[in-house]
Amino acid sequence: MTISGKARLAGVIGDPISHSLSPRLHAHWLEAYGVDGFYVPLKVARESFAVALRGLRLAGFAGLNVTVPHKEAAFALAARVDDAARAARAVNLLIFRDNHVEGRNTDSAGLSASLIEHLGADALRGKTATLVGAGGAARAAIVALDALGAKDIRVVARNNARGDILARDMKTAVKAQLQSFALEDWNKAASDVSLLVNTTSAGMRGNPPLALPLDPLPRDAAVCDIVYNPLETPLLTVARARGHSTIDGLGMLMHQAVPAFEAFYGVKPQVTPALRRLLEGALHGGQ
User: Distance between CA 63 and CA 54 in Å, rounded?
Assistant: First the structure.
């Protein structure tokens, strides 16, 4: 890979950022496609986000991937947003145009692509799915499940009020029927479903596991965790032991990056087994 004075610049912005796999992911594609470009991790505090954005635009960056805690701020600052971002009220991709900043949410497309890869395009059509969480990731997941044809989507939130607000807010954005459940109603929420999705940070390295029993879940239901560090969360370990099909968060991470790389560098990359092996090695302490 050759970098010149004409190199296209992009990066990922968040706080913290040292754990991000995005620089390694994009560097792999830059080399694979011989792109004259560079992709950098940018640690920026919440209160400095708007100032950093202006500086990076002036510095000639093509755009940014956005991670916590800036996704909602990116949504607010973008002059134009796509339908997925509007539904999720969060932006994870900023593209710097000549006279405006465009915001997109590729998390929903990334999750859709990962689920299709593992389950097939029609696995959820007309079926019921349950997701845990009521934040921005849950909103993106609802968009993804709706796009795959889910008929009913059940939202289980630790804070029941937040779950109710999420279901109410998104009813006009999706065709699926949305219903909110309190944790006390977990047995009912998990019964007769085809897919369970964890959209919370429970089970992420350093965080406690998702404390919900899988006993009410049908044995033929698939279980997806959007957490990718560790690859096999406690939720997926228990699900695998029960015989469920499991989907980790690495597929979503890889697929959501495809439209970002294309927007930054003008090349649509492919998600390949070699890329997955690279990122798995990084998660296990490799280079």
Answer: 11
Contact 219, 192 (CB under 8 A): no
- Hey, what amino acid is at 218? P
Active-site residue (options: 6, 43, 71, 171): 71
Residues 6+ apart with CB under 8 A from 165: 134
Phi, psi of 277 (to 5 degrees): -60, -40
Q: For 95, what's the count of Cα atoms within 13 Å in the CB-facing half-sphere?
A: 17
Question: Is residue 32 helix, strand or coil?
Answer: helix
- In angstroms and rounded to an integer, the radius of gyration of the C-alpha atoms of the chain is 19
Confidence label for 284 from pLDDT (cuts 50, 70 and 90): confident
Per-residue pLDDT tens over the stretch 248-259: 999 999 999 999
Separation of alpha carbons 71 and 68, rounded Å? 6
pLDDT value at position 287? 44
Token look-up 């296209």 returns: 8
Q: Is 71 a residue of the active site?
A: yes
Q: What is the pLDDT of residues 68-88, one digit of tens each?
A: 899 999 999 999 999 999 988
Record the pTM: 0.93
